[in-house]
Write a structure and sequence with these properties.
Layout: E1 11-13, E2 16-20, E3 33-35, H1 61-70, E4 74-79, H2 81-84, H3 90-106, E5 113-117, H4 140-149, E6 157-160, H5 163-171, E7 176-180, E8 185-187, E9 190-195, H6 198-216
Parallel strand pairs: 3-4, 3-6, 4-5, 6-7, 7-9
Antiparallel strand pairs: 1-2, 2-5, 8-9
Length: 217
C-alpha cells in the first residue's frame, strides 16, 4: 500500500506501520523501553497531523536519554485512529513522526523502532476493524517489536498516558508501566506506577538504569 509519499515499504499491511530507526545492534533478549507517542513523547494536539504543531514533552527526554545511554532499545507504539477515520493519511503521519524524531535528535536522544496501528472500529474501508490485535490495549505492537528485536518483554517497561497503554503492556507480559499523570495501582503480575512529578521520574530513571546494568553484566 502506498499513498504517494514513498511510505509503502514501512506498511506491513494497510493499517500497520513498522519502521526501524538507525542501525544500533542489541544483544539477544534485551529489555526495551516502550513509549506511547501522542501525550507521552509529544503534546497531544488531538489527532496530530501538522508537523509545525509538534511540541515535545520535556519530561520524557531524561528517560529516553537513560535508555540510550544504557543500551536499551526505545520503541514507540502508537494508535493512529485518525487515519482510520479519514482525518489524515499515512503521509501526514510520516511527516509528523519525522518531526518528532527530528526534535528528539536535536535534544540528543533517539528511538530505535516505531510501530503504529491505524485500525479502528469507526474507520473506513480496510481500516474499519474492531479490536485489531495490533491496536492497544491489545499487545500486538509490543509482541511484534519483541520478535523483531529479540526482546525480553517481561523485563521491559512501558510509559503511556492512557490505561490502554498499561493494558497492552500487561497483555504483552511486561511487569510494570508508568502512567503519565495517573495513579499507582497493582494487578496480579503487573504494577502501574504514576508519572506526575520529579520523584516519579526519578523512580523511572532508576528502573531504566537497573535494566541497563543487567544488560552490561
Amino acid at each position: 500500500m502506498a499513498d504517494g509519499t514513498g511510505t509503502s515499504h514501512k506498511l506491513t499491511e494497510p493499517g500497520v506501520w513498522i519502521e526501524r530507526i538507525g542501525d544500533r545492534v542489541f544483544p539477544p533478549h534485551v529489555p526495551a523501553l516502550f513509549l506511547d507517542r501522542d501525550g507521552t513523547i509529544n503534546v497531544d494536539t488531538d489527532y496530530p497531523s501538522d508537523p509545525a504543531e509538534i511540541e515535545l514533552r520535556p519530561q520524557m527526554l531524561p528517560a529516553i536519554a537513560a535508555a540510550n545511554r544504557t543500551g536499551i532499545p526505545v520503541v514507540v507504539v502508537t494508535n493512529q485512529s485518525g487515519i482510520a477515520r479519514g482525518y489524515f493519511g499515512w503521509s501526514a503521519f510520516a511527516a509528523v513522526n519525522g518531526r518528532v524524531l527530528e526534535l528528539l535528535g536535536e535534544q540528543g536522544v533517539f528511538v530505535d523502532m516505531v510501530l503504529a496501528c491505524a485500525y479502528h472500529e469507526a474507520g473506513v474501508g480496510p481500516l474499519a476493524v474492531a479490536d485489531h490485535p495490533m491496536r492497544k490495549p491489545n499487545p500486538g505492537m509490543l509482541t511484534e517489536a519483541g520478535k523483531r528485536l529479540d526482546l525480553d518483554l517481561q523485563r521491559s517497561l512501558i510509559v503511556g498516558d492512557r490505561l490502554g497503554d498499561m493494558q497492552a503492556g500487561q497483555r504483552a507480559g511486561l511487569a510494570q508501566g508508568w502512567l503519565v499523570d495517573g495513579e499507582a495501582t497493582a494487578q496480579p503480575g503487573f504494577a502501574i506506577r504514576p508519572l506526575r512529578d520529579g520523584s516519579d521520574l526519578s523512580d523511572l530513571l532508576t528502573a531504566i538504569e537497573m535494566l541497563g546494568r543487567d544488560v552490561r553484566s
